[in-house]
Known about the structure:
The protein has helices spanning 2-23, 28-65, 72-84, 92-108. By secondary structure, the chain is mostly helical.
Amino acid sequence: xxxxxVAGVLxxxxxxxxxxxxxxxxxxFLVLFTMLGFVAGVRVMMRTAKEFQAEQMARARRMWAxxxxxxxxxxxxxxxxHTADAAEGSSLVFTRWISSWSSRCLATDRWAFSPSLM
Length: 118
């Protein structure tokens, strides 16, 4: 997202500098187009952040819809999560370990780390 901001400022700076050089004016165009580039960069950055947030909310809603109602369902959701996140490099072993750990903690009402679960 920072790249959009920097690109907008640099493009505005370049256009302003070019126009000032062409017309032989004081750096009025440089300042004007640098500010316009900054505004354009902020707008693009905000739009990108909004799209990213909408994507994350949609993903959270999908995962919430799959939320288990029993402890057995945790392993199923963990496997589905791994399948959905395979492109992102999630580890199936780690996902299953977390699922097993959380299932046992829910069953015993104890939230303790135990290496034997691995």
